[in-house]
């Protein structure tokens, strides 16, 4: 089994190294509108500090964004109303539509060399958790499962994560949240601080993509039903901790919306970007032909499998994952827009949660067995 762990560890590290080599060749001027908009947000943070939350086009008095538009041969670079990723607000300001998280992370690195370090850092987090899963495995099948999933998760940091700069940090965050979810639900005593931390992470994901708010849906459903069943102070505190954590995590987006759109609850997206639900079989067909469909099948299959074979606290993870999958899939599959990364966050959060829940089960079983043997070793007859 040690040989298998070593082999899968090397495979994960080899994929990581290959990814880093590939990332090092990426250009920050590949002609994608989203890219230069995220870079503009990063430039604002580097130039204005916390004032970078204000994305008013009037702040481009150093002509940074105009220069980026010229680089990609954007014809209407002089007219802010025509700028990509920007929308006019009722106040008259023209602001960026995206939440500030991705731009903030890019701003941590030197201008001109921001994207590659961001992706490398996110990949290192994912690889670290993948290696942790392999190390935690206590049976040969679990080693193979953890190894194969870890290799897949690291590979996905190239494709489809490259589709948008917001995907890389979201993937890393989902990996950490998945681990903490399994830790929270498989413990004998569930910590309110731990679920609050999970809430902070899930709320922070909203700073990368607004639809990431749905990643917390399954947790709220689970804790809401649990409180209605038992009506205990501890159950209420768990739900309160999650809610406060989510609010704290997404606070930067709420502040940015207040600054740019006039209210924390007002969106900076234009009417053309807000699409009403409507099942579209053409869009569904796109998902069937995309890597996301494989991830959807894996997420649903793993949750169903854990519901069937999981016991006790481990099974609770599958219940949270199942509720989360239902809400997110209904939302995304009912919206007539296809993007190569829309369903990736919920799929990866689900897979990480199920994977770590199963890997934590053997350790608990061993501890229980040790406790049963302990009385006998002390000369006390066991029951």
Automatic annotation (TrEMBL):
Establish whether keyword Disulfide bond is in the entry.
no
Q: Which UniProt keywords apply?
A: Membrane, Transmembrane, Transmembrane helix
Where exactly are the transmembrane stretches of this chain?
116-135, 142-158, 164-185, 192-208, 214-230, 237-259, 291-310, 317-335, 341-359
Which portions of this protein are annotated as coiled-coil regions? none
According to UniProt, the name of this protein is: Glycosyltransferase RgtA/B/C/D-like domain-containing protein
């Amino acid at each position: 089994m040690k040989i298998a762990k070593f082999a899968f560890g090397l495979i994960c590290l080899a994929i990581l190294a290959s990814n880093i080599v590939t990332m090092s060749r990426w250009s920050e001027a590949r002609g994608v509108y989203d890219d230069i908009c995220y870079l503009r947000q990063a430039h604002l943070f580097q130039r204005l500090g916390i004032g970078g939350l204000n994305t008013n086009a009037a702040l481009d008095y150093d002509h940074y964004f105009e220069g980026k538009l010229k680089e990609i041969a954007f014809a209407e670079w002089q007219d802010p109303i025509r700028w990509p990723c920007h929308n006019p607000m009722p106040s008259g300001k023209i602001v960026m539509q995206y939440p500030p998280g991705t731009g903030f992370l890019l701003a941590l690195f030197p201008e001109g060399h921001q994207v590659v370090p961001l992706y490398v850092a996110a990949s290192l987090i994912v690889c670290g958790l993948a290696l942790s899963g392999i190390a935690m495995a206590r049976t040969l099948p679990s080693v193979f499962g953890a190894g194969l999933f870890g290799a897949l998760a690291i590979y996905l940091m190239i494709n489809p994560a490259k589709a948008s700069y917001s995907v890389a940090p979201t993937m890393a965050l989902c990996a950490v949240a998945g681990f903490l979810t399994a830790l929270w639900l498989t413990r004998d005593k569930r910590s309110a601080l731990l679920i609050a931390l999970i809430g902070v992470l899930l709320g922070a994901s909203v700073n990368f993509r607004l639809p990431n708010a749905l990643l917390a849906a399954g947790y709220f459903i689970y804790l809401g039903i649990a409180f209605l069943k038992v009506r205990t102070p501890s159950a209420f505190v768990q739900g309160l901790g999650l809610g406060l954590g989510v609010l704290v995590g997404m606070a930067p987006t709420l502040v940015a919306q207040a600054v740019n759109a006039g209210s924390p609850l007002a969106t900076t997206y234009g009417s053309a970007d807000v699409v009403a639900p409507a099942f579209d079989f053409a869009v569904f067909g796109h998902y069937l032909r995309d890597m996301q469909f494989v991830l959807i099948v894996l997420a649903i299959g793993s949750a169903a499998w854990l519901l069937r074979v999981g016991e006790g606290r481990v099974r609770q993870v599958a219940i949270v994952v199942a509720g989360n999958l239902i809400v997110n899939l209904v939302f995304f599959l009912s919206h007539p827009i296809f993007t190569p990364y829309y369903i990736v966050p919920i799929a990866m959060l689900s897979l990480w949660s199920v994977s770590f829940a199963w890997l934590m089960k053997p350790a608990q079983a061993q501890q229980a067995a040790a406790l049963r043997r302990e009385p006998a070793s002390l000369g006390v007859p066991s029951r």
